[in-house]
Amino acid sequence: MSVPFFSGEHVRAAVAPDEAVEAVRAAFIEHAQGNWFMPSKVYVPAPPDGDFRAMPALGAGHTVLKWVTSFPRNPERGLPTVSGVVLLSDATTGELRALLDAAAITALRTGAAAVLAAETLARPTVAPATVVGTGVNGRAVAQTFLARGREVSLWDARREAAEAAAEELGEGAEVATDAADALSADIVATVTPGFELLFATGSLHAGQHVSLMGADGPGKAEIAVEELLRARVVCDEWEQASHNGEIARALEHGLKRDDVAELGRVLAGEEEGRRDEHEITLFDSTGLAVQDLAVALAVYRRWAEDPNGEAFAGVVALG
Q1: SS3 for the chain, per residue?
Q2: Statement to judge: residues 35 and 127 lie in one domain
Q3: Does residue 126 sit in the same domain as residue 151?
Q4: Where residue 293 sits, what CATH number does that domain have?
């Protein structure tokens, strides 16, 4: 049986950013309610440059396994930070149904999760969101905000990168004046390698929301522990985040499970998100395989409906 391979171009053509948001919303809820299963991701460190990750999940009659890398210094080599493959299989027969470009799947679901968390946890406002870090995933977050009707302000340690991203994204995107201006916005999404603290103690203001997307593995952080402890923290999944996310460091400083909500449970109405307009809210994202499953399924189902559609021109069948 031949198996289609969907390149990054095919993935992006098949599923729009706003569609990815709704797919990821459903995945969070299904997982929170126990309908989709996902063990924590497995890290294979490759010091000093990066790591490999194996991420399996099961739901909606299918399974995925994402084998993906994170090598933050790769752009200096002219290579992508994230690369790999997603395998989508039938959970009834075990048959492989499709292979998909992992970088494109990761970018779509990262953008979806950051924006979904902001829409769920931030105070109602029409103000632009700030995206800090304008690599592939940062641009995906910005593109998703734009697709949902919110303007974005961009910041990167390399100003030329932010300027290039703003030009690529077009109308609704601009470059922040400076780092302080970027980090003080009412809605901020940080999408950095996680090697440098962006938010020092006392830096967040009342009512602010931050989606922390960069500290998705051991040893990474974008915020000081003391600052995290004074906010309302919502994670993507407690089991994974308590070992590899921002909150893992805070456990040694008194943070408890009851202090942290899960986004899926907030979306399902089972836990509280923001509790008042003055509260600071943080989303601690470690990246869930169920998010990858949701986006991979959306691509595959679109192809199954119309395999000869324009989005799938040039798809290669393997086997």
Answers
A1: CCEEEECHHHHHHHCCHHHHHHHHHHHHHHHHCCCCECCCCEEEEECCCEEEEEEEEEECCEEEEEEEEECCCHHHHCCCCCCEEEEEEECCCCCEEEEEEHHHHHHHHHHHHHHHHHHHHCCCCCCCEEEECCCHHHHHHHHHHHHCCCCEEEECCCHHHHHHHHHHHCCCEEECCCHHHHHCCCEEEECCCCCCCCECCCCCCCCCEEEECCCCCCCCCCECHHHHHCCEEEECCHHHHHHHCHHHHHHHHCCCHHHEEEHHHHHCCCCCCCCCCCCCEEEECCCCHHHHHHHHHHHHHHHHHCCCCHHHCCCEEEC
A2: no
A3: yes
A4: 3.30.1780.10
- Exactly one of 41, 66, 220, 256 is catalytic; which is it? 66
pTM of the prediction? Answer: 0.96
Tell me: cis bond preceding 75? Omega within 30 of 0 counts: no
Q: Tens digits of per-residue pLDDT, 217-263?
A: 778 899 999 999 999 999 999 999 999 889 999 999 999 999 999 99
- The per-residue pLDDT for 280 is 98
| Residue 66 annotated to the active site | yes
Same domain membership, residue 306 and residue 276: no
Cβ(84)–Cβ(238) below 8 Å: no
Question: Region 303-317: what's the mean pLDDT?
Answer: 94
| 122-151 confidence digits (pLDDT tens) | 999 999 999 999 999 999 999 999 999 999
Question: What's 257's domain CATH number?
Answer: 3.40.50.720
Q: Does 202 share its domain with 311?
A: no
Q: What is the pLDDT of residues 176-220, one digit of tens each?
A: 999 999 999 999 999 998 889 999 999 999 999 999 999 887 788
Q: Are residues 277 and 293 in the same domain?
A: no
Q: In whole angstroms, give the CA distance from residue 249 to residue 307.
A: 47
The domain of 299 spans: 3-105+289-318
> What's the token pair of residue 296?
């991979």
Residue 227, phi then psi, degrees to nearest 5: -75, -40
